[in-house]
Amino acid sequence: MLFERERELEMLDGLFAETATGRGRIVLVSGAVANGKTELLRTFVDRNNSGEAIFLSATATAADREIPFGVLRQLLECMAVSAEGIEKLISPEDELETVRRATAALLEVSGTAPLVVIVDDVHHTDEPSMDCLLRLTNRSRSTRTMLMLAESAYDWSMHPSYRIELVRQTHFRRIRLAPLSVTGVSEMVTQHLGREAARSLACEVHEATGGNQLLVRALIEDHGDAVETFERDSRVAGESFRQAVLTCLQRSGPDALAVARALAVLDTAASSDRVAKLIGRDPDVVTRLLHALHALGLLDGDCFRNPLGRAAVYDDLPGTELARLHTGAAQLLRQGAGDAIEVAEHLVAAKSVRADWAVGELRRAAEEALAVDDDAAAIKYVEFALSVCTEARQRAQLRMLLIRAEWRKDPGAAARHLTALFQEQRDGHLDADQTAALVRYGMWHGRTEEAAEALDQLVRLRPTVNEPLGSLLSSTRDWLSHAYPQFLPADIDGAPVPQADSAAAPPAQQDQAAAVLSAVLSQGDGDGRCTRVAEQILQGTPLTDNSLEAITSAIQTLVYGERLPLAARWCDMLLAEAEARGVTWWHAVFSACRAEIAIRNGELVDAERHAARALDLIGPDGWGVAIGVPLGALLYTATAMGDFESARKYLKEPVPSAMFQTRYGLAYQRARGRYYLATDRLQAALADFRYCGELMTAWDLDAPALVPWRSDSAEVHLRLGDYERAQQLAQEQMSLSGSPKSRTHGASLRVLAATTGHRGRLRLLKESVEVLQVSGDRLTLTQALYDLSRVHQVLGEFGKARMISRRAGRLAKECRVQRMQEQSAPSHEQPLMLVPDEGDTWKQPGTPARQAADMLTLSERKVAALASLGYTNREISGKLHITVSTVEQHLTKIFRKLKVKRRTDLPVELEFHAASTA
Predict the structure, then answer these.
(1) Which H, E and C letters describe 205-264, residue by residue?
(2) Does the structure show a pLDDT above 90 at 368?
(3) Where does 704-742 have alpha helices with state H?
(4) What pTM does this model have?
(5) Which of 648, 712, 718 is nearest to 686 (CA)?
(6) Which residues of 666-680 are buried (b: 16+ CB within 10 A; e: fewer)?
(7) Measured distance CA(30)–CA(628) in Å, rounded
(8) Quick check: 708 and 748 in contact, CB under 8 A?
(9) Do residues 478 and 511 lie in contact, with contact meaning Cβ atoms separated by under 8 Å?
(10) What is the pLDDT of residues 81-99, one digit of tens each?
C-alpha cells in the first residue's frame, strides 16, 4: 500500500478498534473511479482479518441493480449459509420481512464477534439490499458492527435519500480519497521501475493522469514504449493506458462515456453548452459529468488533460457514432459562427455528409486555409467537397479552387485538372474571372488551342460587356501582349497605359501591372513613368495568389526599365517572404526573376544558384512553357563561365515546342545563341538571334532591354568579318536603347568600337566602360575592359594596358569567368587566360569596392573611377569640369583613404557600386 494512503488506513484501523468495544461505526469511502477505493478496502481487510472479527464483503455492479437482494445474497454467502438457507431467508414476495430477518441475522453474528460488512461500489446496490443496509445502520450504533461502504464520487445512480439516511447517523464517518499527489505517483513509479525512473518520470506521469491510480499503473505497464507513452505530444497511446481510460469511463456510466466522446470529437472547441447540445443532455447534468471526468484525472478544464486520453476515447468510437458526432459538431460550430476551418475539419472527419450547406462551408474553409498558406488543408477540404458535391457549376468552381491550391506546391501536378476544367468552361459553368484564370493556366502548360478557344468565348461576351468585364479583357490583353503575343486576339479590347501620378485602386493593380510591362517592352520607358507605376504597385500590393501576377509584372518592368538595383531589392524581399510562408510556387517564380536580374548584373554565380533553385522547386513539368526562363539562365551562365559541358547538358533538356511561341522562349533562344557563338558555331548563333528579332518585331516587343538581338547578331558578323553589317546593327541597337546610360547602350558601344580604327575604338570603349560601370553589368564591363586593354597595348600604351588588364582579370574572378575571349574582332591570338596570382583567392563579389565606396565622397569616387581606367589628370579634369589641381587633391585623399600607392591598385568597379547603392 502506498505511504500516501497510510493516513486513511490508520483512520479505518481506529474505527475498527472502536467497533470491537461495542461502538458501531458506518464508514463511506468516496472517490473518483479507479482512485484506489477497492485497494484501500482490501488492504484494510488484509491487516485486520487475523483476529476473531468476521468480514462479509460484496461488490455491487450496474447489472446487480435490477436483481432484488443481489448484494445481500453476496453477504450471506460469506457467512457460509447454504443455498437452501439463503432461499429460506430471502423472500422476494415479502421484501419487508426479508429485510427484517436478514438484519436480525447479521446483528446476531455481531453478538459473537466483531462484524465488518463491506460493500464496494455501493451506488450500484439494488434497492431491497440497500433497505437492508440502511436498517442495519439504524441498529448498529451500540453493537460490534462496522459497515464499510465505497462509492464513486459524482455518481448519482443511488437515490439521494439513501445517502442522506447514512449521513444523518451520528456514528457515520466519510473518508474522501483524493487523487495521488506527485509524491504518491513517484512512490508508485519507484515500486515498479526504480528510483531513477521516478525522478525523471513522476511529474510527467502525474500531469498525464491527474493522479488517478489506475491510469498511473497503466502508464507504468506501458513503460516498454516509454518514449512514445510519456511524450506529451505523442498521438499513440500504449495499449494498457488506452484500456485504462476506457475502463474508467465505462465504470463511470453511459452518460459520462457520452460526454467524453463528445469532448473527444469537439476537442479544443469543447464547452459544456456545446457538449450538452451535441449529445442532447441537460446542461446542468453535463456540468456535473464534466466535474466527474475532471476528478477522474482525464480532463483539464473542458479538454482532455493529455492527447493520449483523447486518442483512446476517439479511436474507440464506432464509425456511425463518429460520423454522427462530427456532423453534429460541424452544425453546432456553424450555427455559432464558428471558425470555418474547424467546421470543415469536422465535415471531413465525418467522411460522409449530405447537408446542402456543407459544400459552401468546405469551400470557405479552403479559401481561409489558402489565406494562411495551409495548402494541404485547402486541398483536403476541396477534394472532400468534390466527393460529395453533385451540382455541376459548384463542381467546376471547386475544381478551379483545387487547381489554384495545388499550383502553389506543384504546377505540374495541378495540370491534371485542365482537361476537366476546359470542358466545364465549354459547358458554361465558369464565370468570366474563372475563364481568364483558366486561360492563364492553360497557356502556361502549352494548352494553347483550348486556351485560345476559352479566350474567344470570353471576347464574344463583349457586346454585353459591363465595366468589370471590360477591365478583365483589358488586363488579359496586356498580359497576352507581353507573355503570349502569338495568341493575342485582334478584336480584344485595349486600355491606355496608366500615368504614374494616377491614383490606382487595389482592384486595378493587376491591370496596371500588365499595362506598364506591356508598355515598357513595346515603347520603352524614356520618361520613367512605367517604372514609377511599377514601384507604386510593389509598395501597395501584399503578396497573395491573386496579386502574384501583378507583382512579378512590376518587378519585370523595373528590370526592363533598367532599374536593376531596385528590382533586386524588391525581389530579395519577396523571395524571403515566399520562403518564410512556404509557398513553393512563389519561391520558384521569384528565384527565376532573381536569376535574370543577377545575369544582367554579371553576377553569374548568384544567377546560377537562383536559376537552379527555381528549377529544383517545381521541376521542368511545373514550369511548362516558362521553362525557358530558368533553363535559359543556367545555359547562359554556364556558357559565360566557360563551363561548356554543363551548357551541353542543359541543351539536352527537353522543352515544349509551344515555348518558342512565347516571351519565355526568347531568353532560352538567346542563351542558346550565346552558347553557339562561344563554341564557334556562328551560323547557328546567327539563326537564333535573327529568329528572336523576327519574333520580337512581329510581336511589337522589339525592346533591347528584353533581348539585345541586334548587338548579339553584330558580334556574330564581326566574327564572320562583316564589319559593315555589324556596325549597322550596333548603331540600330543604340538608337533603340533609350537612355545613353543603359546597360544595352553600353554593350552596343563595345560592339560598335570593334568596327572602327584604333583611336575611334579607344574613345568608344572608354565611353562603354563608363556607361557599364554605372549600369552595373559586371560581365559586359569585364569584356569592355579587356577590349580596352588590348587597344592600349596596340597603341603602345603598355602601362595603361597592364593596369586595365589587371582590373579586367580581377573583375572576371569576381564574376567567376575562368576564360575571357576576345570576340569583338576576328583574331588568331590566343585568348587571355585569367588565372589567379599566387596567393590570390577568389573574393566575395564586390566586397573591396563596396568598402571603398563607403570611404570616399561622391566626387572622390568619380575621380577614382576614371583614374582606374587610365585617364590622365588633365582628361579627368575635362570630363568632370574641375581643375587639374582639384583632381590631384582628390587623388591624394583617395590614395590615403584606400591605403594604396598607385592607380593600378584602385578598384575598377568603384563607380558601379556607387551607382548601385545610391
Answers:
(1) HHHHHCCCHHHHHHHHHHHHHHHHHHCCCCCCCCHHHHHHHHHHHHHCCHHHHHHHHHHH
(2) yes
(3) 709-720, 723-736
(4) 0.78
(5) 712
(6) bbbbbbbbbbbbbee
(7) 78
(8) yes
(9) yes
(10) 777 878 888 887 888 999 9
Q: Which residues contact 220 (CB under 8 A, 6 or more apart)?
A: 188, 189, 192, 193, 205
What phi and psi, each to the nearest 5 degrees, are found at residue 57? -135, 150
Adjacent-strand bridge partners of 145: 115
DSSP, res 528: S
Q: Are 101 and 130 in contact (CB under 8 A)?
A: no
The whole-angstrom separation of Cα 806 and Cα 618 is 42
CA 761 → CA 135, 321, 730, 741, 870, distances in Å?
Answer: 125, 88, 14, 19, 15
Instruction: Give the Cβ contact number of residue 79 at 10 Å.
Output: 14
* 3-class DSSP state of 699: coil
Q: Which three cell numbers stand for residue 388?
A: 460529395
**Locus of grid cell 442522506:** 164
Assess contact for 142 and 25: CB atoms under 8 A: no
With CA atoms as reference, report the closest residue to 570 among 555, 589, 550: 555
**CA 63 to CA 66: how far, in whole Å?**
6
Q: Are 820 and 808 in contact (CB under 8 A)?
A: yes
Q: For 387-435, give the secondary structure using H, E and C.
A: HHCCCHHHHHHHHHHHHHHHHCCCHHHHHHHHHHHHHHHHCCCCCHHHH
pLDDT digits (tens, 9 = 90+) for 567-579: 999 999 999 999 9
pLDDT score of 843 more than 70: no
Element (H, E) at 29: strand 25-31
Grid coordinates belonging to 661: 511561341
Backbone phi and psi for residue 173, each to the nearest 5 degrees, phi listed first: -135, 140
Distance CA 346, CA 267 (A): 11
Taking CB atoms within 8 Å and a gap of at least 24, the contacts of 398-402 are: 398/359, 398/363, 399/424, 400/430, 400/434, 400/437, 400/438, 401/363, 401/366, 401/367
Report d(CA 243, CA 248) in Å as an integer. 9
* 455: nearest Cα among 494, 412, 422, 415: 422
C-alpha 482/C-alpha 705 separation (Å) is 13
Residue type, 418: L
Q: Quick check: helix, strand or coil at residue 555? A: helix
DSSP-derived secondary structure for 43-81: HHHHHHTTSS-EEEEEE--TGGGGSTTHHHHHHHHHTT-
Phi, psi of 661 (to 5 degrees): -100, 10
